[in-house]
D-galactarolactone cycloisomerase (Haladaptatus pallidirubidus), 377 residues
Amino acid sequence: MEIIEIEAIPLSHSLDEGRGVGSARGIHTTRSTTLVKLKTADGSVGWGEAFAPARTTATLIEELFADKIVGMDPFAVESLAEESYMEGYHFGGSAIVQCALSGIDVAMWDLIGKIVNRPVHQILGGKKTTSLTPYASTMYVTEWDQDPAEPIERAIEEGFTAAKIKIGRGFEDDIERVRTAREILGDNASLMVDFNGNYRPKQVARSVENLSEFDIAWIEEPVPPENHSGYRQVRDLVDIPIATGEAHYNRFEFKQLIDDRTVDIVQPNLGRCGGFSEARRIADMATTENVAIRPHVWNSSVGLAAAIQFAASVPKYPHADYIPEPLLFEFDRSKNPLRDDLMIDSIDPTGGVLEVPQDPGLGISVDEDAVERYRID
């Protein structure tokens, strides 16, 4: 079976005036991404997502990948990463190229799942997984200076038993936001904090010390992603799990994090890291070195579905079944029509359980009318 057509579709949605959300690093006023649509001669369609600047990524896919993909057998998908490094010798490992590759790779695996009539997680992991434990990614820094209690209260109402919140704007603000979250969530809920790389190592250490009474499950991106020496310094200064990976691309960047043991949890985004093929290699490296893997998710519905399928394939090693460590899965709670409107049936994270789609491929049906509404080319 050959691919006969590839289409890169840039999407964007502008948030309402004054309703931007973000982190210590800044506010976002739009949500955008690029979908990849592949077709085969028998009419099968595979969907993927390249989570990067939309028009730029769509152009790159058309110029760099389209001729190669047309005529390709989807089952040759794992050769794509190798070819991108070899043929794109001077730029194949760059961020935008890896994002473009991610979208194509995910779409090919979606096709493979449909061909063999299995969800991707079963193909990758070999067993059926029915559910994950979602955590609310919430308490964003907002353009309208939202009361930080409101999103946590909403997460509790929706049945979440874990949450990750934004900090990194100063020590007093860190304490206030974490105290608010812990008081509302209660003592038994998992609570994670995300600095979004806005501190220096000793600032991280001071903030972590200030937050010690609140039982933080992990700290995320404590220093900038490119600051490898800073991660080593943070590792030596704090006694709490460190997570990172949303701004890292391909197996080589993750290998350095894993080999240096600078982090305890790696967080590849399926729309950036090279898709399922590279994510599987990253998971193999992480598992071999006993580093946890939890995907980062801030994508559209296609990237969300891909992340769910990948998370459902991750092995429990080294834990036996009786070790109480659920695979926590990030579910963004900010407004994003690209996440909520592009599927025929939306994925529901409420109630404390996230059902893993069991239909072939990504397990979702894309609403192509909705795709056209948000298309920007």
User: Anything to note?
Assistant: Residues 3-117+369-374 form a domain with the Enolase-like; domain 1 fold (CATH 3.30.390.10). The mean pLDDT is 94. The CA atoms of residues 164 and 180 lie 12 Å apart. The longest helix spans residues 95-116.
